[in-house]
Write a structure and sequence with these properties.
With about 150 residues, the chain is mostly helical. It has a single domain, classed as Ferritin (Up-down Bundle). Helices cover about 85% and strands about 0% of the residues.
């Protein structure tokens, strides 16, 4: 039964990424047209990275949901809050071309991911560790986002 909860958690998070990209429009075309800062990866890298990260994020959610630890509800609320920011970022950046607003959103997301890492550690350390690559990727994404806001 636990494997089903894990599977639904991962599929649910992957689905939120897919739905966000749907509302964001033609991400590949927008990305191609932008002036980008140094170290900007090819557009194809993002889909691969987010698929992996969403699987890790979904696994962290599973660990929180199935934990019996005190404070689990707070961790889940924080998880939902970061997921809302994550969901909205692509829509703001690619769909709305609001690069400075997207920069504010991603900085807020990074701060919230940091809080999640700290809180998740008390609930289930592995859930916390699973968020570290997500934090690192979002730090890189913030560099790209702010660079694009400056250049465009």
């Amino acid at each position: 039964m636990k494997w089903l909860i894990w599977l639904l958690s991962v599929i649910g998070i992957e689905l939120t990424g897919f739905i966000s990209s749907f509302f964001a429009g033609d991400i590949q075309s927008v990305y191609q047209e932008l002036q980008k800062p140094p170290l900007s990866p090819a557009g194809s890298v993002f889909g691969i990275m987010w698929t992996i990260l969403y699987a890790m994020i979904g696994t962290a959610l599973f660990l929180l949901i199935t934990s019996k630890a005190k404070g689990k509800q707070t961790a889940i609320v924080l998880f939902i809050m970061q997921q809302v920011l994550n969901f909205s970022w692509s829509i703001i950046f690619f769909g709305g071309s609001q690069y400075w607003l997207a920069s504010v959103v991603i900085v807020a997301l990074i701060l919230l991911i940091g809080v999640c890492i700290k809180v998740f550690y008390r609930i289930h350390p592995l859930a916390s560790y699973l968020f570290v690559p997500y934090l690192l990727w979002c730090l890189f994404a913030a560099y790209l986002c702010i660079g694009i806001a400056i250049l465009n």
